[in-house]
Design brief:
By secondary structure, the protein is mainly alpha-helical. It contains eight helices and no strands. Belongs to the binding-protein-dependent transport system permease family. HisMQ subfamily.
Amino acid sequence: MNLDFTQMTPYIPYMLEGIWVTLKFVAVALLIGALIGTLLALFKISGPAPLRAFAVAYTSIFRGTPLILQLMLIYFAVPQLTGYDITPFLSAITAFGLNSAAYISEIIRAGIQAVDKGQVEAAQALGVPYRAMMKDIILPQAFKNILPALMNEVITLTKESALVSTIGYLDLMRRAQVVGASMYRQFEPLLFVGLIYWVLVMILTLIGRKIERRLKASDIR
């Protein structure tokens, strides 16, 4: 096997810029997913029947269809149906945010339902409003339970972000493809960004473990 990374040297800064581009898109998509996912989880647990049905149907659709299909539908269908030329970035954060919301809603729902029911009963007995009870009592405890699952969702989203290269968004994967086409050698740039993805995932894993240890230590104290 003949590997030659010397030709790739001038392109390294260009590919490294893709780290920020990828992380920015993932962060925005996660924020969207967390906000919508929290609302969906609350709908499933205590919402009126129509909202509960909507949340269940939403989760079923977005978990039951491929993410790349959702991305393509948003990127190609929006201009066709509305005449609005949606950008790759907006398509990416919309598709990934909506998809992530379905998974996060299930994670939060499970975390909330894992909280001791006595906590809810005590809050209701004391006359604590529902919104305050969820914000100050239930959700903080649920967060400790769901942290590992949330970190897994962050890691999964970071890895799956490579799919946005299919719509021309200049993330890490797309930049590797551009460099490979310029060099007429695909393996080296793909191997290079593969290493970057691995480092990003390892960093996220370590951050998750550190936060988890701190939460456990706060419980002990």
